[in-house]
Design goal:
Chain lengths: 70, 314
Amino acid sequence: MTSFAVALFAVAWVAIFSQLASGNDPVLGQAGNGPGTEAKAPPPGLTDAQFGLAVAPQTVAPTPLTTSQS
Amino acid sequence: MTAIAESARRFPCFGGSVGVYVGCGELDRGRRAAARAERRLLEIHARLSRFLPESELSLLNRDPRERIPASDLMLRFAGAIHAAGALSYGLVDASCLPELIGAGYSESIEPEPSDLSVHGPGPSGERRPAGADPAERWRAVGVDEAERVVIRPAGLELDSGGIAKGMAADLIGADLRGFQSWAVDCGGDMLIGGRTGAARQIEIADPLGGPPLHRLELSAGAIATSGIGRRSWRRADGSLAHHLIDPGTGLPAFTGIIQATALARTCFEAEVLAKTALLSGPERGAEKLIHGGLLVLDDGSTELVQPTRTAIAA
């Protein structure tokens, strides 16, 4: 293998590993779907609340009120 | 943990300021519920105001018949009139409309703070507990549920006043059950609740304009305040008058109590208890506050009847 071929091979592997490290499988698509599954992004318009997943625990703060003559 | 604010609506209604508060994790749902409550409250006002000539109440008051076909709301209101009279032994008497008009309350009066001298004793310095009208006209107001008619002697006119506000708060509260937190404030008559049982801070205003007289936390139940310092006016002879009529004399009541706040299970009950306590006078007023409350006397002193629970909902 010539030194040019070695350099080209190394550049290619660096490129492939950088893709894998960033979470994108250059063959399967986006990370997290496992081998053989299709990449699925949440449909636009759906929110965490609609999935029943709380972004953070929430409580309601009751508004203070005043009773007076009317 | 983050806390989200309630969806709030505040608007003119019942001759004063009315508020609806709904706490819900889904903000849009809370906003829609509050807007729906506002529409319903305005509809109740439009039906039960005696100051609107075409309201159902005005039409009923002008109707010469003794049995008058009525809406569900009017049937409920007529039943509430009878219940208020019975609960208060005749002190909260919605049939005192001619006396109220005779005292000068013929047009809607905005509940602005009035001349402070109205907080004193009566025109001639008297203080006396109110009494029931021996005629007990309120007993003649009835409902025929099957025929869907209100029954009352021809010519007997009815005033909606605080009874309608308390009843309206209870109706709206029934719609809001299930939300995390909610409150209906019909001009100081409030019904409070919420699935989470979170405590809401309530302050009782000083009728003399000072800082709040008392602060309590309520997670469920009702609180109402009645007094003689607002909706008051000066008559042609210079004497002061107000809207709380002593059914026994047919004149504005000067009992020695200028403001009463009552806790109760429903807003209708709180409204009736507050008025009953005020009209009963200082000697017997506190015993009328069976769920707790606060009295303000005309010398500026207060008497607190401590509530035993923070949740008094039925």
